[in-house]
Amino acid sequence: MLKSVLLLTSIFILSPSYSQVVDEIDSSSSSLAESVGNLPTEKIQKISPSKRIFIISNSNNSFDKGDFISIIQGSKLVARALVAKMSNEIAGIKILRIHSLSLWNGLRNGSEIQILRGDDSYFNKPEKKVEAEEKDLAKDEKVVDEDDLYGDTKIIDDDLSVEEKKNRSIKNDNIVTGAYGRVEGIDENEASTYYGQFMLQWAYQIDDNIWVEGGYGQNIVRDFPSTGLDTTLRNITFRAKYTVPAPFYSYVQPYIGYQMISASSDQAGQEDGSATPEELQREDELMDKIAQNRPVFGVSILKRLVPGWFVKVDLGTDIMNLGFSLEF
Predict the structure, then answer these.
(1) Mean of the pLDDT values across residues 19-42?
(2) What are the tens digits of pLDDT across the range 89-109?
(3) What is the CATH number of the domain that holds 256?
(4) What is the mean pLDDT of residues 273-293?
(5) Within this chain, do residues 225 and 289 fall inside the same structural domain, yes or no?
(6) How far is CA 47 from CA 55, 153, 160, 278, 325, in A?
(7) Global confidence as pTM
């Protein structure tokens, strides 16, 4: 009988507290969903090979250098990070703690994430414990200043190296260009002339500021080598270039290279009953003369428009053209 009385009394005393705990959990869950929905959304620009250093956007100005931030995706806590460098609307962050390995492994360049600045106790982590852990991690953090994040070789907690290209004027290794310009040739009277030509170019950075570039252009020459005939002119160029930074977000690239121009026409030099042997021989001679292989030199000028995009000008003995370039 006494045990029953004590049991009933305990339930009576504890029931309000139990109800309060349930209410707090429900309230916390509602607050979490609402808060996550209001968090700023940013985009991942680049991920280091070890996936411990991220370059992300800060278009909402939602955090500053030195802040502790949490990466949220799908209302779930992915990782904890330290903002180590800021530049305009771009930030470099160092991952300190991974909360969801599956979500972290799923992050890619271009992924959209939500950023929670400061305390992440929304996710039921004791606030004092979080602060203590972050102080310890910050004490062990190898990033001394904002430039150290992009040092030549950055050793991080998992003993992996992140190769950073500090000495390169253009950080990315590839530049693809679509352009239109003028390539030199001859007309049916053997006079020097220029023909309009579309060209596609691909440049690859083999070492700091040293590039190799290949280009291919093609156009149709009307009434060559004689009236009524068309000739396809193909232009293949190989270049070695060196990048020199210039004012106003521009780069100058002197180059040397080699150009191979070939020409083809299905009807040139072919007997059709209307041309004399002398005219047919003349057509063959002109086809041989317009085709040429030669060393070339010149300079390319790149002017940055927005991150990743340039306007490009080529001024050389091989071609003079204007186009747009994409780096990646």
Answers:
(1) 55
(2) 889 999 998 888 888 888 989
(3) 2.40.160.20
(4) 86
(5) yes
(6) 6, 15, 14, 66, 23
(7) 0.53
Domain assignment present for residue 200? The answer is: yes
Q: What is the pLDDT of residues 233-250, one digit of tens each?
A: 999 999 999 999 999 999
CB–CB of 59/42 below 8 Å? yes
Number of domains in the chain: 2
Identify whether residues 323 and 209 lie together within a single domain: yes
CATH number at residue 54: 2.40.30
Domain of residue 263 covers 174-327
